[in-house]
Amino acid sequence: MRGKTGILLVAYGSPGAAAQQAPDCFESLVRRSFPSLPVYRAFTSESRRRGAFQHLCCMPPAAGALPRTPPGEMISPGPPHRGDIFSKLPCSDPAGGHRDSVYEALLRMRAEHCARVAVQSLHLVPGREYRAMTAEIAEARKTGGPRHIRVGTPLLHTEADAHEAAATLTALFSEERNPDEVVICVGHGGHDSDDVYARFASAVAARDRRVLIGTLAGKKGVETVIEELRALRSGSAGRIRLVPLLAAVGRHAAEDIAGAGAYSWRGRLAAAGFDCRVDLKGLAEREAFARIWLARLTAALDALEIRGIS
User: What is the pLDDT of residues 135-148, one digit of tens each?
Assistant: First the structure.
């Protein structure tokens, strides 16, 4: 079959060198694991998506374009609608200029003869951003993107995934922490993902009660975690390691978790009498977690072959 297989890696796209390090590490692992496949990157942050679709709305609709439909993880094959959309894509500039949205990256891949694409994002949960990503994938397929697309799942997609990630997390910190230390892992959270984080927190607690899960938004906020800490320590203060439960740590997340202000998690825990130290390494920089996402990507690539379209 004509056309090649490619990989699209998707990250949020927070600005700054620190936030870039985690997706860079993951891309390096992917390139080492699949040296014969081209690897592309796209970003999902609101500002980058907004800029991409402002650009795209100025294009004439491609011939045969269809209305948007609800996204799904498997995008079914269908005839490509090329039109003249590819010539209108701005140049992607990894050095810090234009960055491709998921939609733009898929059109670029098709223009560069990728007929089959495995997409792997660094999402933790199948929440709003993940759904927006799959919507862009569906739109790209209908307006001239690759004919065959398979999407790797987020870190905490299923109950089994939660147990796998919990085992990885507790094993990681059982080797590193001091005997009297409690580890608090703080994710983004949100009301649409409260159940996912609660399931993960339960899986973690079943393995190690001294690793707690909190979120910047949603039900598992800092006050809830402080109550859990006090119950764990019978009211006594103690040493805390504060760790982001994020694939990559952008500037705003770092400030919310570990900032010097009184309203950061670090400030609130200090005010409650806990001695905090901070470890701001993103999960994608930790090899054990990067390999979980790599396994999801491998499954997506295998699915393309299983369906007889390799």
Answer: 999 999 999 999 89
Q: How far apart, in whole angstroms, are the C-alpha atoms of residue 270 and residue 264?
A: 10
The tally of domains found in the chain comes to: 2
Which CATH number do you get for residue 255? 3.40.50.1400
Contact 81, 62 (CB under 8 A): yes
**Residue 219 vs residues 168, 192, 232, 290: alpha-carbon distances, Å:** 24, 11, 19, 27
Domain that holds residue 29: 4-155+286-306
- Identify whether residues 30 and 122 lie together within a single domain: yes
Enter the pTM of the model: 0.83
Is residue 15 within 8 A of residue 277, CB to CB? The reply is no
Q: What is the pLDDT of residues 153-163, one digit of tens each?
A: 999 999 999 99
| Best CA proximity match to 10, nearest among 31, 29, 26, 34 | 26
The residues annotated as belonging to the active site are: 188
Helical (H) or strand (E) element with 114: strand 114-121
